[in-house]
Amino acid sequence: MTRSPDGPIRKLLIFVHHRFEQWNAPDWFPSRLRQEFPQVTIVHLHDYKRVDEEIVDAEIAISWSIRPEQIPAAKKLRWIHSPAAAVHQLMFPELVNSDIILTNAREVHGPVVAEHVIALIFALAKKIPDSVRLQEKHVWGQQILWDAQPRVREVAGATVGMVGLGSIGRPVVKSAKALGMRVIAVREHPEKGSEGADVVFGPAQIGEVFRQADYIVLAAPVTDSTKAIVNAERLALMKPDA
């Protein structure tokens, strides 16, 4: 971090602000950076109030939110790192047309999101939300849960439809296969490989994924081509109990 082809780095600006505390940069993080890179000025903002004045001479910024008008003012900025996986909110012309490097933390989030996906699949298959509601009413709902459609089911043998096989899609495939699930996927470039999925389709065959899947997992980046990727037409292709 201390040197780039254009010379040494002198200032790093951190402004990651969110109402959920775990998504904010902890105080130990800039302190650790100051110890390891004493020659770099580390500025850690806990909100966005001073971003305009601090970004003017910053060379590196860690944030997932920058306004378009701040880019021309940040004349020394060389690199923006987003701690999120998604960067679509930064894909505005001022940044895209600049020489600023943009990186993200996609590999960090993959395993965590994959576990959440599997948790939701189990919750749906075993009707956990319905069970909790019945429990709150002090109702022994075994027969009620079984009679209601779709019925409680095993996940082994069910089909997961993966839309996207990136840093999130890959660990979902691995976990689903370990549970005995069949995985079919759609990715922009099927020739890149299956990543462990049983079948991989190209974008033109996405309808087949919706037609066969018991569970659909959306793990594609937000782009013009993926917006509204789920619509009434594709939902109509799905099984009644999917």
Q: Which CATH class of the largest domain applies here?
A: Alpha Beta
- Widest beta sheet: strand line-up: 4-3-5-6-7
So how many helices?
10
What is the fold named in CATH at topology level of the largest domain? Answer: Rossmann fold
Assign an overall shape.
elongated
Mean pLDDT: 91
Question: How can the largest sheet be summarized?
Answer: 5 strands, parallel
Classified in CATH, the superfamily of the largest domain is NAD(P)-binding Rossmann-like Domain
Return Rg in Å. 23 Å
Oligomer: single chain
Separation of the first and last Cα atoms: 48 Å
The percentage of residues in β strands lies in 15-25%
Helix-strand topology string:
EEEHEHEHEHEHHHEHEEHEH
Number of strands: 11
CATH architecture of the largest domain: 3-Layer(aba) Sandwich
- State the secondary-structure class: alpha/beta
Query: Low-confidence stretches at least 5 residues in length (pLDDT < 50)?
Result: none
The percent range for helix content is: 25-40%
Tally of discrete structural domains: 2
